[in-house]
Write a structure and sequence with these properties.
alpha/beta; 26 strands; about 475 residues; single chain; 11-stranded mixed β-sheet
């Protein structure tokens, strides 16, 4: 049990009606889940407004209402707290309710268009392998020490974040590596958290359906770094043109990493194959199981974070060399002299990075067959760009369904195909059914050819008209290649 006034510490309050010395049971922003003596925070969403459900929350037992607009009818037994921003209040209240768990461990936030999941997961695996109890909050899963839970959002809501951080603190977790999405920043999901570090990977075309333009997306990510304090550090990719922008106004200690620019941490690729890369960091050569230039950036970022946090250099390099690829991120399966690659690449930049990495490794006579689609009800402007990239850099391309959600798959595929240059049009096949598309790619592939299946990566479902069906790219391609004579 907590007192209302305890959970309101640091919240920007405009006015209060009622007694804040009363005890409350729980906090929530879903009126359907409210129970006796809870606090209900009314949030304005994209489709619904929590203020419309204040009375329902009170009927279910809410004792305190946090809102931006007071209801027309004030009930005397209820405490009302009028705030400037309910979303910000939710973040701070969640942190207070769970006794500020982020201050009890080292919280490392990773943001950027690509690489968040790989870097956060590699860091978690690295520290865990070194015997340092760690946590993970990622797109794929949430981990508390050696226990893992399914994740539904890249950056969960503030109550879930603080709940898991509290469990981590209770279990003596020392470091938590957390993906920080631009949606999460803009919607104040990280409000009230105390970050030890902020890491910027890169910025490219994504989520423009949400942010409207590239500048808004960049400035949203920059807010994360602007919020860091002088006891934290900010690490940025200096090869990205927006890398130094992230550091402009931060109070954090500043560090940079790069492959091409002058930086605090540098890496050089000495050799590259489908089995891994020979890399050099600080005059130390080592072999990594990860593949591709984009993964060289991820590895360097992991090394940089570990180094800044004080891990001994030789121990760090040895541990990095033992790291396995992350599920659904350039995941390779070889059968019948055909190489299949599963990757989550669902942005133009990510797709181009994957394709160019494959081209750098493969031999000239080996064909590259790409299976790719785009998600429905998401940024439409990237679709023709991805169509152009896939058709320009592949020997042949099969456009297919990703997660069409509530859009017609035919329309999505047509928009992807609209970006294909006339000179590449003979490379294109369109197959709506994703399994049939993968099957066709396997049938087209000959000895030593490469199949890239992009867009879904670790996902084990396909979402069509609000229903999620079991579907795993890796399982499907394994079955099909095993059947191939």
């Amino acid at each position: 049990m907590k007192l209302i006034r305890e959970i309101l510490y640091r919240v920007q309050i405009k006015s209060i009606i009622g007694d804040t010395s009363l005890s409350i049971n729980n906090i929530g922003f879903d009126s359907r889940l409210v129970s006796n003596s809870d606090v209900y925070i009314a949030i304005k969403g994209e489709n619904t407004d929590g203020h419309d459900f204040i009375f329902q929350a009170i009927e279910k037992g809410a004792k305190c209402i946090i809102c931006e607009i007071l209801p027309t009818k004030i009930i005397s037994e209820i405490v009302y707290v009028l705030v400037q921003c309910s979303r910000k209040a939710l973040g701070i209240i969640s942190s207070n309710y769970y006794e500020n768990p982020s201050s009890k461990l080292n919280l490392i936030g990773i943001t950027g268009t690509n690489g968040k999941t790989t870097i956060s997961t590699l860091l978690y695996n690295l520290y865990t392998n070194l015997g340092i109890k760690s946590g993970l909050i990622s797109t794929v899963k949430i981990c508390i020490g050696d226990k893992s839970f399914k994740s539904r959002q890249t950056t969960p809501d503030p109550i879930k974040i603080n709940h898991y951080l509290s469990k981590m603190a209770d279990n003596n977790v020392r470091y938590c590596f957390m993906e920080v999405s631009s949606h999460g920043i803009d919607q104040n999901r990280i409000e009230g958290l105390n970050f030890k570090a902020g890491v910027f990977t890169n910025l490219s075309h994504d989520h423009l359906d949400y942010h409207n333009n590239f500048q808004n997306c960049r400035d949203t990510k920059k807010q994360f770094f602007d919020s860091l304090n002088s006891n934290s550090f900010a690490l940025t990719n200096n090869d990205d043109k927006n890398g130094l922008v992230m550091l402009q106004n931060t109070k954090a200690n500043k560090y940079t990493y790069s492959l091409n620019s002058l930086s605090d941490f540098k890496l050089k690729i000495l050799e590259s194959s489908f089995n891994g890369m020979l890399l050099k960091i600080n005059n130390s050569d080592f072999w990594s199981k990860l593949v591709g230039k984009f993964n060289a950036y991820n590895i360097l970022c992991v090394y940089s974070v570990g180094s800044i946090l004080g891990l001994p250099k030789e121990e760090l390099i040895t541990a990095i060399s033992k790291l396995d690829p992350v599920s659904g991120r350039f995941q390779i399966y070889k059968k019948n002299e055909i190489t299949a690659i599963i990757d989550y690449a669902h942005t133009p930049d990510a797709l181009e990075n994957i394709l160019r990495s494959i081209i750098e490794i493969k031999k000239s006579q080996e064909n590259l067959i790409t299976v790719v689609g785009c998600g429905g009800n998401r940024d439409k402007t990237k679709r023709p760009i991805m169509g152009d990239i896939a058709s320009s850099l592949s020997s042949s391309v099969i456009f297919t369904s990703d997660n069409p959600r509530n859009e017609k798959p035919e329309s999505i595929i047509n928009e992807i195909a609209s970006g294909v240059k006339f000179s590449n049009s003979d490379k294109i096949i369109s197959i709506l059914n994703r399994k049939e598309a993968i099957k066709t790619a396997c049938q087209l592939a000959k000895s030593n050819d490469i199949i890239l299946i992009a867009g879904k990566g670790h996902e084990s479902f396909q979402e069509i008209n609000g229903v999620k069906y079991d579907f795993d790219d890796l399982i499907i391609v394994k079955q099909l290649l095993n059947q191939k004579n």
